[in-house]
Amino acid sequence: MLLNSQSILINKMPPTSKTFLHLSQGQLKLFEKCPRQFQYTYLEQLYSPNNQEHEELQNLGSSFHLLMHQQEIGLPVSSFLQADDQLQRWMSNVIEIAPEIVHPNVCGETSRYSEHSRMLQVDDYLLTVIYDLLIVQKNKAQIIDWKTYPKPPNKIYLGQNWQTLLYLYVLVETSHYLPEDICMTYYFVQYLGKPKSINFSYSQTQHKKTEEKLKQLLDKLSECLIKYSQGDMFAQVPEGVKVCKHCQYSTRCRRVAFPQERTIFPGSNAETMISEDYTNLPSIISIEEVTL
């Protein structure tokens, strides 16, 4: 018997009469890295086209996530596997490293949610997360995230990444689980040709630290938005920092030479070329609608 998902996972949704800014982990990460880049990407919707190789890798990663979603909800996946040798290898790697995830022996107290979205209101922001797979039992829950790039980051760095911080934080804040009841596991399905997993436990101390860090970042964003509405630009990072070397807005910021960015028109095909980490910000363009 499946658990009642409504009693376990309750989105803390705000009243519908107010406009909120939707923020994902990728947007928090970008704003923390460079406020000016956040401004250009989301407020002014500028971008530089991806190179073909990068776009192909993104498409392949998206195909793998769709494959795992269909596998989870019981739809046929043979056409995916037959069409692409890479997807076959990655699926084999997942079965090798986590057979219980792909072919679970689900007991009556376990529920599984694929591509599961959660929202949490914090002040004038809606924090949004999408779990590739969420496995819940009465007294514990596990977040699963699939990664298709070949080299995982250092575990310490990954643990400080906003995806790890926000995914764990939001689950605690939108459920009955204590921080010690949950964990998050990344599966890197092509790490040097072999799969690798990185697991994170959680604690009340970590939860409190994330809450404080999140508040500081959102307060800073609110200040930037107020100043932006008054005609000021978001702050730039100091000159000479590494982040500017590979930024698509280096020319615009007068830092280093880089191909000129182009404007996105909402609803156009070009809009899909933004990295998946930096999507899902539908209302941030309309600054005048936000009460700060």
Which features does this protein show?
Lambda Exonuclease, Chain A; disordered C terminus; 10 helices; 38% helix; 17% strand; disordered N terminus; alpha/beta; 292 residues
Assign the CATH topology.
Lambda Exonuclease, Chain A
- Mean residue pLDDT: 81
DSSP strand count: 8
Cα-atom radius of gyration: 20 Å
CATH level-1 class: Alpha Beta
Structure class: alpha/beta
DSSP helical segment count: 10
Q: Compute the separation of the termini in Å.
A: 45 Å
- In total, how many domains does the architecture comprise? 1
Which stretches of 5+ consecutive residues score pLDDT under 50?
1-8, 258-292
Quaternary status: single chain
Order of helices and strands: HEHHEHHHHEEEHHEEHE
What fraction of the residues are assigned to beta strands by DSSP? 15-25%
Question: Topology, please?
Answer:
Elements: H1 5-8, E1 21-23, H2 25-33, H3 35-43, E2 46-47, H4 52-73, H5 78-83, H6 85-97, H7 99-102, E3 111-122, E4 125-136, E5 141-147, H8 155-160, H9 162-173, E6 182-188, E7 196-201, H10 204-229, E8 262-263
Parallel strand pairs: 1-4, 5-6
Antiparallel strand pairs: 2-8, 3-4, 4-5, 6-7
Write a structural description.
GO terms for molecular function: helicase activity. The strands form 2 sheets. Strands 1, 3, 4, 5, 6 and 7 form a 6-stranded mixed β-sheet that branches. This protein has a two-stranded antiparallel sheet with strand order 2-8. The protein is built from 10 helices and 8 strands. With 292 residues, it is an alpha/beta fold. The protein is globular, with a radius of gyration of 20 Å. The N terminus and C terminus are likely disordered. It has one domain: Lambda Exonuclease, Chain A (Alpha-Beta Complex). A hairpin with a 7-residue loop joins strand 6 and strand 7.
